[in-house]
Amino acid sequence: MTATRGAPHRIWPIPAMIAAGTLISLVGALVADGIWDRLAALLLLVMSLYVLAAGLRLRENGR
Amino acid sequence: MISVSLGAAPRLRAFRLWSLIHTWTSLVSMAFLLLLCLTGLPLIFHHELNHALGYEAAVPDLAPGTPFVPLDRIAAAAIAHKPGEVLQFLYFDPDETNTVLAGLGKTLKTAPSDSFVVLDRRTAQVLADDKPGAGPIGFLLQLHTDMFLGLPGKLFLGAMGLVFAATIISGIVLYGPFMKKLDFGTVRRKRSSRIKWLDWHNLIGISTLAWALVVGTTGTVNTWADLMLKMWQGGQLAEMTAPYRDVPRPLTLVSLDAAMSTARTAAGTMTPRLVAFPGTGFSSNNHYAVFMAGSTPLTARLLMPALIDAGTGQLTDMRAMPWYIQALFLSQPLHFGDYGGLPLKIIWAVLDVATIVVLASGLYLWLVRRRSALPRLTASRTLTTAEPGE
Lengths: 63, 390
Prior knowledge:
The complex is a heterodimer of chains A (63) and B (390).
Chain A: E1 3-4, H1 13-31, H2 35-56
Helix pairs in contact in A: 1-2
Chain B: E1 3-4, H1 8-44, H2 46-52, H3 71-81, E2 86-91, E3 99-105, E4 115-120, E5 126-130, H4 135-146, H5 150-178, H6 193-207, H7 209-223, H8 225-240, H9 256-267, E6 271-276, E7 287-293, E8 303-309, E9 315-318, H10 323-336, H11 341-386
Antiparallel strand pairs in B: 2-3, 2-6, 3-4, 4-5, 6-7, 7-8, 8-9
Keywords (chain A): Membrane, Transmembrane, Transmembrane helix
Transmembrane segments (chain A): 12-32, 38-58
């Protein structure tokens, strides 16, 4: 667990952005109406598709 | 070069502790969370499903602009439809402006109501007559809410929601060490099935954590609804009705329409959402309690009770409800996901399914690790017992 190799690895930026985007969508749809509801749903959809694509992507090192 | 940093042992101990918290909090709550996710999935579409299954009133097409009949006539029609029952409340659904839902009970204090009657506001015609919680969606809602165990069931599921929050937080703590050498989204498909599912578990879990935390914690807040309402009844409502504590119920009640008109005038741009009749749990013996809702998407969910003297028709008090009731009102849409139209409901369902995948993969990972640990444990025990005799 404590062994490290090479440059520090950036673990948190993408999960933090997804979490922030989710919260903005949920609260945005609650405080606004109409087009904002659809934009909130669209943002959540885009993030879900990004995560799915990241998981399904074949990596160059064969992972 | 591999460098092993100083202080590795405490960090390893902390990692093991968080790992234990993650494993056991998820195992303890697993069955209930799966139940909540599975029953919650159709509940996201409760409106559409009730409509498709014929549990929603069919509203007749009348000429646009047909005026509403007086509410006194609506109340009389509801009482006439349910002889032997008394009218407890009228609810005005903001999405179904041409109908009104009447709650009736054997007594004014019966809770929950014995009957729900849906009436047309333009004709006072009865459109539907149901028991609360009727139909498959009603069954699923009660299973989801309290597992048919009443308040103890609700509080137990609320506790499971808190355990779920501990699972998520410990999962966040563990995500860092697991991802030290992996890019975001890495799924090692060429490795064993366990590694592959560990990667999917981590990826979906970390991506849905904000949604799962919001839905889990708001679900827990919803399980405290009965307690919060009791607190409000014993606190703010008792304070607002204190001058009437020993005054008997008026023999003749003023017109409901007059009471509503007084409340509307006092509340400005707000619109009535619910009116509780004198003698019910949401009012006093001497008041109509008209719960007014705001006009913006947010304030439309926050109610303000206006108390109208049922003997004189005068407004006696009107206040914003306490913070915990406001928190309850806001936590309901955030839990059920039914506040942003069909696109948001569909995404809510997708995230619900994603949570089921995270739960199931977590259970699979625990079973696989346990299966692989058992032979090792058995072998070490065999060695230990064999040693003295060797």
